[in-house]
Amino acid sequence: MSTSVLILIVLTGLGLVFGFILAFANKKFAIEVNPLIHIVEDVLPKGQCGACGYAGCQAYAEAVVLNPDVPPNLCIPGKAPVAKQVADLTGKAAAAVEPRIAMVKCAGSNEKAVRSFEYAGVDDCVAANLLFGGAKACKYGCLGLGTCVKNCPFDALSMSDAGLPVVDPEKCTGCGKCESVCPKKVIAMAPLTVHVRVNCSSRDKGPVARKACTAACIACTLCVRECPYQAVKVENNVAVVDPAVCVANNCTDAKCLAKCPTKAIRPAVLGIVPGTEDQAAVERACPSCVKTNTAAG
Predict the structure, then answer these.
(1) Mind listing the pLDDT tens digit for each residue in 44-57?
(2) pLDDT tens-place string over residues 201-214
(3) Structural domains counted in the chain
(4) How buried is 199 (Cβ within 10 angstroms: 0-12 exposed, 13-18 middle, 19+ buried)?
(5) Is 3 within the bounds of a domain?
(6) Does residue 24 lie within any of the structural domains?
(7) Which ranges constitute the DSSP H helices of the chain?
(8) Is residue 112 in a domain?
(9) Residue-wise pLDDT tens digits, 62-115
(10) 232 with 118, same domain?
(11) What ranges make up the beta strands (E) of 94-193?
(12) By residue range, what is the domain housing residue 233?
């Protein structure tokens, strides 16, 4: 018998032996998977966005089925309908889920924002941010390279000709993926009930911010003084609106819009480029603004 044939027989024998050993071990030490995990996973939207705090839908399904302390309403994209299904399947109580949507806190379009230099590197905001904080003079503004668009698992974002992302309110689930990948943190999740939004994230002082972008908040505090409900305050040189206060007071006349010199604070109109709200939107959000403007004229 030749050496090559002998080697082949020995290797085949070893393969069969180890195969039997592995098959026995697999049967002996097999861990049964709770079939409910797959049922729960099937009702999840499969966005793999991680908004629930787990590494994908399967990981959350395992946690919510096996861990009694994991609530059934953590799937943000699934909203209330999915939370109810998961609650029914797992026998847990589901608290109400408040719908939310992504808001772009920057109106520094190509026309309004000053550029310090021309960027010709990798077409990615994270990469551009590594080079002196990006090409914009405002180091807090949107870099406009669409990293948020590329990472949205629900195709709810698109880049406008103005160099700013636009959120599609019909597709946005509020998962927060765009918020987590933006190096400038100009995207934030907001409740659908929000009345107004601040289209600026700059923390520079007024003169510096205005020099870098004509749409910047200059921290003049006029909006703070105009709001009768104390829903607006200035933090780190930029206006901040608490939407919960607006809703609680049923504000239908957002007077904070009336005297903003740079129009940094505007009606929360969805699905448009930040800073392009038309006059009709302003009038709907702030009826008294029309009277103020007429009197001023």
Answers:
(1) 998 888 888 898 99
(2) 999 999 999 999 99
(3) 2
(4) buried
(5) no
(6) no
(7) 3-28, 35-43, 57-66, 79-90, 125-129, 147-151, 177-181, 206-212, 222-226, 243-248, 279-285, 287-296
(8) yes
(9) 999 999 999 999 999 998 899 999 999 999 988 888 889 999 999 999 999 999
(10) yes
(11) 100-104, 157-159, 165-167, 187-191
(12) 100-296
